[in-house]
Write a sequence for this structure.
């Protein structure tokens, strides 16, 4: 039987999500790179970019002057599946912006610890 939302695993992944958010706001490229799985299968779909593989993700971050726009997290949902897989979904709002953003991440436990293997960032449209 698959254990969902084990409190100990939830705490681990929540701490990793907090670490990611702090690194994102500080534009700490070393930490951001360390949190993504270094593999060609790692994917990041951003607001304005589609990145396949760790190398493309790292190059994008290196080339983004000033880093990510500052934001505050409005809501976060962490869900764990067993001991080695989790999702983190959050809503955010960029400073000075009215639109709400969304971020989804899939985290997997590797021999090097928890890593993001898939991420998607988008901004909500004015209407659907």
């Amino acid at each position: 039987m698959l254990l969902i939302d084990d409190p100990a695993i939830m705490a681990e992944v929540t701490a990793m999500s907090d670490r990611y958010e702090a690194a994102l706001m500080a534009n700490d490229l070393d930490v951001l790179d360390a949190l993504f799985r270094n593999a060609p299968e790692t994917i990041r779909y951003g607001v304005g970019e589609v990145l396949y593989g760790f190398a493309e993700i790292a190059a994008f971050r290196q080339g983004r002057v000033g880093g990510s726009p500052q934001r505050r997290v409005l809501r976060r949902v962490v869900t764990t599946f067993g001991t080695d897989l989790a999702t983190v979904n959050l809503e955010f709002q960029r400073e000075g912006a009215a639109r709400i953003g969304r971020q989804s991440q899939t985290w997997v436990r590797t021999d090097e610890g928890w890593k993001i293997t898939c991420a998607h960032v988008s901004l909500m449209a004015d209407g659907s």
Summary: The radius of gyration is 15 Å. The helical segments are 7-26, 29-35, 54-63.
